[in-house]
UniProtKB/TrEMBL annotation:
Transmembrane segments: none annotated. It comes from Phormidium yuhuli AB48. Pfam families: SUFBD_core, SufBD_N. NCBIfam families: sufD. Belongs to the iron-sulfur cluster assembly SufBD family. This is Fe-S cluster assembly protein SufD. Residues 28-173 form the SUF system FeS cluster assembly SufBD N-terminal domain. InterPro entries: Fe-S_cluster_assembly_SufBD, SUF_FeS_clus_asmbl_SufBD_core, SUF_FeS_clus_asmbl_SufBD_sf, SUF_FeS_clus_asmbl_SufD, SufBD_N. It comes from the Bacteria. Residues 183-417 form the SUF system FeS cluster assembly SufBD core domain.
Length: 445
């Protein structure tokens, strides 16, 4: 069954495809009511097309042509994910394979008592009793792909910090997709709860077992991921989100963040893989004095499409948001950026900065950018902007005049363009790895 006919009606056919009634791997009492509610919601929804304003630059026709089957439950050997392991987190790792928790690949020996990292099945009873206040409670649950995930996810990654817990080592959350002989659909789901005065650095990665660069080809699969994050008073979360699915994959992700008073959220988004990817990043303020930092780097080529849609809504005073997203686009790649910052009447003394910068490396590369500020408050300091450019000939000539060849000169300029984002990543091994990807992909373009 493909998605082709669904665009004419609704997503019920896809909901039936993933067999919502199969047994869950964690806690059916908690998950089944959520799945039933969103399954009913799917009857009212349609897949978006380019006629929808939020999707007018993102064509899903390639996705609708693929016949998907539910991802099977598989067991991997540690050697199969060895290249994806962070040296900084050898005993601080949670692994999901095809959307299901893998206890044998996960390691939590370095984690303190106040942090739970695992799946829903092993969540302590007192935290499980509070789950109904958080899971599938973020705004935006009515969006079609979010509803699809809520109607059919099979397991949940849960990261829960108790009050006052400070974690000194990064925690790696690894979602691994294993391509099979037929195209498959996976539904990764994650819930992060940071109670008051807690602190964590979380590295959320989406990878496949296909060897080679993220644009390598293999059997297609569709990753439909949803992550919900709740930051309570004075909590601090540094979030690195790395998407490097292989080059035939489809990836649509939703990250929804709610920030309470004086909380601090920093997101570093890195998009390298998939033939078509989209991330919806929504941040909601529920108290004054919040700080939000959104950094992003998109690196695509060939015929890849990468779409970043972000929304930050401020409804309380003394909030700050600083957003910088950069795109490096080569060959026939297509990048989309749609950033929206909403400053409502109560959000006086807000400081908001938004900037999208794009570098095109070939004549056929293209970008659509739409930074937006919607301001109702009258005592704010806000700015936004966008740039689209190619490598400057005089800058390349200057480097060549100092003895460098043309290719090396171009690579240095691209490296410098990406460095502003990469230097903010708090994990050194990731900074190095992504920097190598920038250099490698630039040469191929």
């Amino acid at each position: 069954m493909s998605l082709k006919t669904i665009t004419k009606n609704n997503v019920t056919s896809l909901a039936e495809l993933v067999n919502l009634r199969q047994p869950v791997l964690s806690d059916g009492e908690v998950l089944n009511p959520i799945r039933d509610r969103h399954q009913a919601r799917l009857h009212e929804l349609a897949l978006p097309t380019t006629r929808d304003e939020a999707w007018r630059f993102t064509d899903l026709s390639a996705l609708t042509q693929v016949n998907f089957t539910p991802a099977p439950s598989l067991s991997l050997e540690a050697s199969q994910i060895e290249l994806n392991q962070l040296p900084e987190a050898p005993e601080s790792r949670v692994v999901f394979v095809n959307g299901r928790y893998s206890d044998r690949l996960s390691q939590q020996e370095a984690l303190p008592e106040g942090l739970y990292a695992g799946n829903l099945a092993n969540l302590p009873p007192d935290q499980k009793a509070k789950l109904g206040d958080y899971l599938a409670k973020q705004p935006g649950q009515e969006e079609v792909f979010t509803a699809l995930n809520s109607a059919s996810f099979q397991d949940v990654a849960v990261i829960w910090l108790r009050r006052g817990t400070v974690v000194d080592v990064p925690l790696q959350l690894l979602f691994v997709s294993v391509p099979e002989d037929s195209a498959m659909l996976t539904q990764p789901r994650c819930l992060v709860v940071a109670e008051a005065n807690s602190h964590l650095t979380l590295v959320e990665e989406f990878v496949s077992t296909v060897e080679g660069c993220p644009d390598s080809q293999a059997m297609a699969y569709f990753n439909n991921a949803v992550t919900e994050m709740w930051l309570e008073d004075n909590a601090e979360l540094t979030h690195v989100r790395l998407q490097r699915d292989h080059g035939s994959a489809f990836h649509i992700g939703k990250t929804a963040v709610t920030q309470a008073r004086d909380s601090r959220y920093a997101c570093h988004t890195l998009n390298l893989g998939s033939q078509l990817s989209r991330q919806n990043l929504d941040v909601y303020q529920t108290g004054p004095g919040t700080q939000t930092t959104l950094n992003g780097l998109t690196l695509i080529g060939k015929a890849q499409t990468s779409d970043i849609h972000s929304t930050v809504i401020y409804d309380h005073p003394h909030g700050t948001v600083n957003q910088l997203h950069k795109c490096i686009v080569g060959d026939k790649g297509h990048a989309i950026f749609d950033g929206r910052v909403v400053v409502r009447k109560k959000a006086q003394l807000t400081d908001a900065k938004q900037l999208n910068r794009n570098l095109l490396l070939s004549p056929k590369a293209r970008v659509n950018t739409k930074p937006q500020l919607e301001i109702v408050a009258d005592d704010v300091k806000c700015s936004h902007g966008a740039t689209v450019s190619q490598l400057e000939a005089d800058e390349v000539f200057y480097l060549q005049s100092r003895g460098l060849d043309k290719t090396t000169s171009q690579n240095l300029l691209v490296d410098a363009f990406a460095a502003e984002i990469l230097q903010e990543i708090p994990v050194e091994s990731l900074r190095t790895a992504i920097g190598q990807c920038v250099a490698c992909r630039t040469i191929s373009y």
